[in-house]
Amino acid sequence: MVLPLSPEWVPGSSYTYAWVAMDNQGYLAKMYNNNSGWLPKVLLSIPDIKLYLDDLSEYIDGESEKYNNKINKNANYIVDLYSSYTYRKYDKPKIIKEFDFELKKWDGNHSDAGIGAKMGMFLFEALNE
Fold first, then answer.
1. Less CB within 10 Å around the terminal CB: N or C of the chain?
2. Cα separations (Å) of 64 from 1, 56, 87, 106, 110?
3. pTM exceeds 0.90
4. First-to-last CA distance in the chain?
5. Are residues 41 and 7 in contact, defined by beta-carbon separation less than 8 angstroms?
6. Residue 43: φ, ψ to 5°
7. 120 and 73 in contact (C-beta within 8 Å)?
């Protein structure tokens, strides 16, 4: 089942949507609305956008069965801002240690740190906790 996204869509469902944004300098970021954040109107105006968003997210995360993602910037990542609520039991070094573990375990795929290190992108999650 494809969840409908249209210009009339409003947050509040139990679904998380991911999309890619670009700033005026050309830097890309993978964005998550985490059930409560708004999605850009320009995005919602594209017919069948959910299908494209799924394909793009799977490609970025290294999970696509359609497209082979050979990109590896062999870069690093930086943890800048993070949710003090979500990570209330962690300090920054522990968060980085866990991200490093995931990055190595999955070779950059399937991990938040891989979005920065492998793809060279920023990651932003609108947390709803």
1. N
2. 18, 8, 29, 14, 11
3. no
4. 27
5. yes
6. -70, -45
7. yes
Helices (H), the chain: 41-44, 49-60, 92-105, 112-117
Domain boundaries, the chain: 18-125
Burial 96-106 (b: 16+ CB within 10 A, else e): eeebeebbeee
Give the three-class secondary structure for 28. Answer: strand
Q: Please give the helix or strand (H or E) that residue 107 lies within, else none.
A: none
Region of 121 on the Ramachandran plot (φ > 0 left; ψ -120 to 50 alpha; else beta): beta
Sign for the CA dihedral angle at 108, 58, 52, 72 comes to positive
C-alpha to C-alpha distances, 52 to 76, 87, 102, nearest whole angstrom: 28, 31, 26
